[in-house]
Amino acid sequence: MSTLLVVIQFLIDLINSGFQLFKNLKLLPFNKRKDVSRDTLNTIPERFIYLFECHGVHRNQIPAFFGHGITLHAMTDLAELSKQLTPEILQQASSLFGVRQDWLECVSDKIYNVPDFYKHPEKFDQYITELKQTTNELWCYVLRTHESTHADDNSDGAFLFVETIGVINNREIVRYCPVGHLCIGYWKSRADFAANCGLLIKSGIQQVGKYANKDWLNLFNSGTVIPEYDYQDGSVALASSAVWHIDEFFERPEHFLKGVDAEANNFGLHSAVERWLRWSEKGYFDVFGDGSHPRCRKQFERKLEELLR
Question: What is the pLDDT of residue 166?
Fold first, then answer.
């Protein structure tokens, strides 16, 4: 009988140990977990920590990575961190990650000044040329929404450039460079968005097309959100894993026109193709270097003839 009681007690202890282990595992910093939530960024110390964690520097790694006299103790005590932060430190941190200092100082909710090169693909080309001169570690997500786009939809396209600025334990520390591109359901904006995509590919910068949540993309284009960081993968964390193929904008008229507001008498559609052909003449879509572009251009010319009948 006593042996049975010992076995029962052993099983109870084992179960309790399992529950305790589960509780402890839930507290570990897996994946995208951060100690400061975007919804509670009401003080300078909170925003300071959040800024670093969104770019791949965990709060406990800030003192070693950033320096400037920040102590490890301050990472566990916001009041102590507040004492250590100076205007010079805030300026250095905002400059490091390319954000507005008045956001870090809790003066504004706007984090980024987001450029938009609508009507000026040549300025976008200049922008990415200058970006390439600052780093050899640069790639880009070309973002758009899943939803059908319309001319009054002001949040359905963007470029997210990601630059590597350091490494911690084989994880890349990054800086984000957002570029907005609004209203790609509008014919003129769609053609300009396609032109920018072509120039991006021609630049040699690694790129991938990704679908993004419409509300998040609206915040992104307004400069009021920082992309999150996935600590498990060591890269930027985007909510959607769905991919769209950028080259379809250069090869297939039906994909280029999908979601464009047709307007009266198909004005929006044939105007989009006409503007595409205009940018084609400048070489923006001759991206593959295999002699295929003239054939693709013929498809767009035939599409224009069809729309004008």
Answer: 95
Residue 5, domain member (yes or no): no
Structure tokens of 79?
């009041």
Co-location of 67 and 134 in the same domain: no
Q: What is the structure's pLDDT at 288?
A: 87
> Which residue in 198, 214, 228 sits closest to 31, CA to CA?
228
The CB density around residue 228, as the number of other CB atoms within 10 Å, is 17
| 192 residue type, one letter | D
25-to-19, 167, 177, 237 alpha-carbon distances in Å: 10, 26, 35, 22
Question: Which range of residues forms the domain containing residue 71?
Answer: 38-104
pLDDT at 224 over 70: yes
47 and 186 share one domain: no
Distance in angstroms (rounded) separating the CA atoms of residues 8 and 4: 6
Neighbours of 96 (CB within 10 A): 18
Q: Do 137 and 92 have their domain in common?
A: no
Across 224-239, average pLDDT: 90
Amino acid in the structure at residue 200? L
Q: What pLDDT is recorded for position 148?
A: 56
Return the structure tokens found at 117: 């090169």
Dihedral sign from CA coordinates of 115, 120, 125, 130: negative
Residue 244 CA to residue 149 CA, distance in Å, equals: 15
Residue type, 128: I
Q: In what order do the strands lie in the sheet with 138-145?
A: 171-180, 157-168, 138-145, 206-212, 243-244
- Decide if 237 contacts 231 (C-beta within 8 A): no
| Mean pLDDT (the chain, rounded) | 87
Tokens of 119: 């009507």
pLDDT at 22: 37
Helices 187-203 and 121-134, interaxial angle, to 10°?
A: 30
